[in-house]
Each structure stands twice: as C-alpha cells, then as structure tokens.
Design brief:
Radius of gyration: 25 Å
CATH architecture of the largest domain: 3-Layer(aba) Sandwich
Order of helices and strands: HEHEHEHEHHHHHHHHHEEHHHH
Shape: globular
Strand content: 5-15%
Strand order of the largest sheet: 2-3-1-4
Helix content: 40-55%
Largest sheet: 4 strands, parallel
Number of strands: 6
Number of helices: 17
CATH topology of the largest domain: Rossmann fold
CATH class of the largest domain: Alpha Beta
Structural class: alpha/beta
Number of domains: 4
C-alpha cells in the first residue's frame, strides 16, 4: 500500500508509534504535524510536541520536559534541516523528515502544498494518478478529487449554485492557482455569459446576494409584481430548472435564500412556497426550525471526528438560533435537548482536542496567550 492510499493522518502517524522512542526530531517543512487529527492522536499517545524557532525558548521547553522516556516522549519539530537543531538533540533523537512530496509523488508539489489539511485528506483518499502529472494536470486532478469540481455541470447554472453552497458552507478559500483555473472554466461557459464568477467564489456575502436577487426576481415574476433592478442577469431559471427547485430546501436551510414576502403565496407553484411568506407571516419560526434541523443533523453525523471547521459552522448556526430564541421569547423548551447534546459533544471534543490545538502558533493571534509571541516577531 502506498502512502497516498492511506488517509493522510494515518500515513503520518505510522512514523510515531506509542511508547517506543523517548526523543524524536522531525523536519516538517509542510506542517503535517500541525493537522488537528494528527496533533490529537499524538497527544493521546503521550507525545509532547515542541516547535520553537527561538533557540533559547527551545532549550527551556526541552529541558523542562526532562527526563524524556518512551512513556513521556518528546517530539522536537523544525521546518528546516534537522542538522540545524542543537547537536545534542540531533544526536540523541530518532530522526524523521516529513514532506508532502513523499505522500503525493505524482502531483505537483506547490499545488498540493497550497491545500488545507482537510482537502489533502480527501485527495489522499482518491488515490494516486496512474502517471506523474505536471502543474496544469495536477490542478485538474486536485479540483476533481479534492473539491468535487468534476461534478460541476457548467452548462447548468444550478450546478454552480450547488457547488458554491457547499464551498461556502465549508468556509474554505480556494488556493490562487486552483481559483484561476476554475474561473477560466466558468468564464468560458456559455450558460454563465454576463456573470462575473470571481466574487461569487471569493465572497460568501456576494454569493448570497446574487442567489437572493435571482430568487427575488423569480418570485416577483411569478407573483406578477414589480421587479427590482439587480446587478446580475437573471440566469437561475427557477421556473424551469428542476435541479434548482430540488435544491431550494437546502438553500433555505443554509440561509443562502431568505423567504420573500408576497401578497398571495398561492400564486407560486407548490415547490416554491417554502421560499415565500405572506405579508403577515413571521419567518423567524420557520428559520428557527430549519436551523434546529440542520444542527441536529450536524451533531448526529457519524462520519468520524469533527474538526475545528465543523465546529465553526455549528457555532454560526447556534448563534443565529440563539438570537431567534431571544427575539421570539419562545422555543427554549423545544431546543433544550439539542442544547444539551451540543454542550456534551463540544465539551468532549474540547477535552480531547483543544490542548493540542490551543498551543499552536498561528499567523494571526486567536487567543490572548498568542499575542506576546506575535508581538515578538
């Protein structure tokens, strides 16, 4: 079995068996040990991971953890050459060099390096290409297997909306070279003529404004009311695109589409009525139900360990639901079981995962204890 045939965390973790080596020194130019799945398992196996560019701080932390033993093992990480570490650590430690190229030898290294850990894991699950690929072919391969662009039907605007809905729900940013390649495809699609796809990919708010304007245009036409002028051509033909009609529930659930008020909802076809409100309707109750359903689904998913990005999405939905609960001054009893599940699940994740994540150095500080090191740079 090749490295690429393994899931990324397992492929990295097999280099670090529990209770065998007291000191391991690792050259990790691509930050593979910082992946939260890897960091969590290393913590479970008892490893203390040290990554310090300041030689004094490195020495302080290393000495603080003595004595190193197989039961209390230490990993010293550098992004440079192992020979640049202090000689005593280099001499005593088990030496390992990690590189993305070892896991994806047939793909362009700069393209793979630009991916977030979750996308690398998905790419690894797809297996290796049959032959070595250059940069352009690697981009196509990565878009297809790591970002599901293969399923994106550019002849049908509904395909783009569905893909963007998932893309923004993951709160991801496309790496520059992948973004350029995808934009080139979108701009060449006749069905998207007159539409600038760049802001839709880059900005979740711009994407939501676009879809809401398209939905508002459809509703106004169907209800026979005046249509506001929008910045984009009307290309999402809800009235005849059955795929868009099927996607309406998901667009409402994620908040991409907000229900539009009309004088007589019965003028709309049955499939469209969840996306409209009568003038006297209060849409907050329906939105609260949708959010509660989405949260129940997220918390009930049994697809493996939740990652930090999963919790960020849960936090946004829970915050919106909490606001609605206060505004409506009702519904607390109905969502109490959901709140208990959320508290229990999140607390369990914090106990197992937060220690390994909270101590990592970040490009921008996320917590108060990150600020001194950030200021010192």
């Amino acid at each position: 079995m090749t490295n690429a045939a393994l899931r990324m965390p397992e492929a990295v973790l097999r280099h670090f068996p529990a209770h065998l080596h007291a000191l391991t020194v690792v050259s990790d130019r691509d930050g593979l040990l910082a992946d939260e799945d890897v960091a969590g398992v290393l913590a479970d196996r008892g490893f203390a991971v040290i990554e310090e560019t300041d030689p004094v701080m490195l020495r302080v932390r290393v000495e603080h953890l003595r004595p190193w033993t197989p039961e209390r093992p230490v990993i010293v990480v550098t992004q440079g050459d192992l020979r640049n570490l202090p000689f005593d650590l280099w001499r005593q430690g088990r030496q390992i060099s990690l590189s993305l190229h070892d896991f994806f030898p047939r793909l362009s290294y700069p393209i793979v390096k630009s991916l977030a850990p979750a996308r690398r894991a998905r790419l690894a699950a797809a297996g290796e290409p049959p032959t070595s690929l250059g940069e352009v072919s690697s981009i196509d391969f990565v878009l297809r297997h790591a970002f599901e662009v293969e399923a994106l039907d550019l002849a049908n605007p509904a395909g783009l909306v569905g893909w963007l809905n998932v893309h923004h729900a993951r709160n991801e940013i496309l790496p520059p070279r992948l973004r350029e390649a995808l934009l080139a495809r979108l701009r060449a699609a006749p069905a998207l003529a007159g539409l600038d796809p760049a802001p839709l990919i880059d900005d979740k708010d711009a994407y939501e404004v676009f879809v809401r304007e398209q939905w508002d245009t459809f509703v106004r036409r169907a209800a026979g009311t005046s249509i506001a002028k929008t910045g984009a051509p009307y290309i999402l033909r809800f009235e005849r695109d059955t795929e868009l009609q099927d996607d309406l529930a998901g667009l409402l659930r994620t908040g991409t589409i907000a229900p539009v008020r009309v004088g007589d909802p019965d003028l709309l076809p049955a499939w469209a009525r969840p996306g409209v409100l009568a003038e006297t309707d209060d849409g907050r109750a329906a939105r609260a139900v949708a959010l509660a359903g989405s949260l129940a689904g997220r918390l009930g998913e049994d697809g493996g360990e939740r990652r930090w990005d999963d919790w960020r999405a849960i936090a946004r939905e829970w915050a919106e639901l909490s606001i609605l609960r206060v505004e409506m001054d009702s519904g607390s009893a109905a969502i109490a079981p959901l709140e208990a599940t959320l508290d229990r699940t999140f607390l369990d994740w914090l106990r197992r995962r937060y220690a390994s994540l909270g101590g990592q150095k970040l490009p921008q500080p996320h917590h108060v204890h990150h600020v001194p090191l950030w200021l010192a740079r």
